[in-house]
Design a protein that fits this description.
The protein has 307 residues and is mostly helical. It has a two-stranded antiparallel ribbon. The two termini are 64 Å apart. The structure holds heme C. Heme C binds next to α7.
């Protein structure tokens, strides 16, 4: 009796839960939560194809050098590259003498301590230094950028969903907010000091458009420095900073696949060799041997024996 009451109570609970689930599901289907203005206006990065894409991708050294030029002439005014050292530029094809010069000419000096007085000071960068931050500290960086912190760019193509195409779309994606748009979505109106950019997660970014006119940098290799080209080059450069060993990884992956293919073929032949004896042994012999049975059946038929 007690057990039956227990079942009934349990059943009551299950019924109540199912009913409430049903009404919630019905509600969610009938009145879906409307997309917010940010969700409606936010854009996915436009496709970008780089030489380093895909399993056979290799860096285009000339493009990386152009990208480095854009970084050093434009982006480095606000962004550091703290995981990249000047000597790493050798991988882009710069000679040690060129690297030494790039480091000692770098606009931002490197923080150090005066060995005589112990006071904080700065010195010219050396090839062994990492690209310094243009700001002394976070407070100074925020004070200069409308309270936003320009992130270190070394790993940015790994840190942001969309990678290099995102960086390319972001820096070429600034747009004017039309009065129509503001009327329709008053909540996304750009506050003073920010800039409307539909590729940025919350649509209004503190970074002013860094690349504004064609020819902002002068390329030595004859490539036309359009805004789009400069954005592409700097995005390619930031793929390299985030993964300088990308080519090694691609090469190792390829070697591993070839090795595994050979391994599979060898494993198949090894299997055939090892099982060759055993397979012969389980061949049907005696009365179960199909050949033997065929002869038997024939003889039975000849002598009129059934079964
Ligand atoms: C005047 C300073 C300034 C310059 C120059 C500048 N940036 Fe920025 N950048 C910022 C600030 C500030 C932010 C942070 C924006 C925010 O959080 O709203 C930022 C953010 C970014 C972000 C991260 C966006 C995200 O998803 O969080 C990327 C990528 C970026 N900048 C790339 C570049 C590149 C590439 C250049 C050079 C072509 C450049 N920036 C030049 C100030 C600058």
């Amino acid at each position: 009796m007690v057990r039956k009451i227990g079942y009934l109570v349990g059943f009551g609970f299950v019924l109540a839960l199912l009913l409430s689930l049903w009404s919630n599901v019905k509600d969610a289907i009938a009145n879906p939560t409307p997309e917010s203005a940010t969700e409606q206006l936010h854009k996915e990065p436009r496709p970008l194809s780089l030489a380093s894409d895909g399993p056979f991708g290799r860096f285009d050294r000339a493009q990386l050098q152009r990208g480095f030029q854009v970084y050093s002439e434009v982006c480095s005014a606000c962004h550091s590259l703290k995981y990249v050292a000047f000597y790493d530029l050798a991988q882009l094809g710069y000679t040690p003498a060129e690297i030494k010069k790039i480091a000692s000419d770098w606009k931002t000096e490197v923080p150090t301590v005066n060995p005589d007085t112990g006071e904080a000071s700065t010195r010219k960068a050396l090839a062994s230094d990492h690209f310094p931050s243009p700001f002394a500290n976070e407070t100074a960086a925020r004070a200069a950028n409308n309270n936003a912190l320009p992130p270190d760019l070394s790993l940015i193509t790994k840190a942001r969903e969309g990678g290099a195409p995102y960086v390319h779309s972001l820096i070429t994606g600034y747009a004017a907010q039309t009065p129509d748009l503001v009327r329709k979505y008053p909540e996304v109106k750009t506050p003073t000091g920010l800039h409307y950019n539909p590729y940025f997660a919350n649509l209004n970014i503190a970074m002013p458009p860094p690349l504004t006119s064609d020819g902002q940098v002068e390329y030595k290799d004859g490539t036309k420095p359009t805004v789009d080209q400069m954005a592409k080059d700097v995005s390619a450069f930031l793929v390299w900073t985030a993964e300088p060993k990308l080519e090694n990884r691609h090469r190792a992956g390829l070697a591993a696949i070839v090795f595994l293919l050979f391994g599979t073929v060898f494993a198949y032949f090894a299997y055939r060799t090892i099982w060759a004896e055993a397979k012969r042994k389980v061949q049907a012999k005696g009365p179960l041997d199909p050949e033997h049975r065929a002869t038997m059946d024939k003889q039975k038929a000849e002598h009129g024996i059934a079964g």
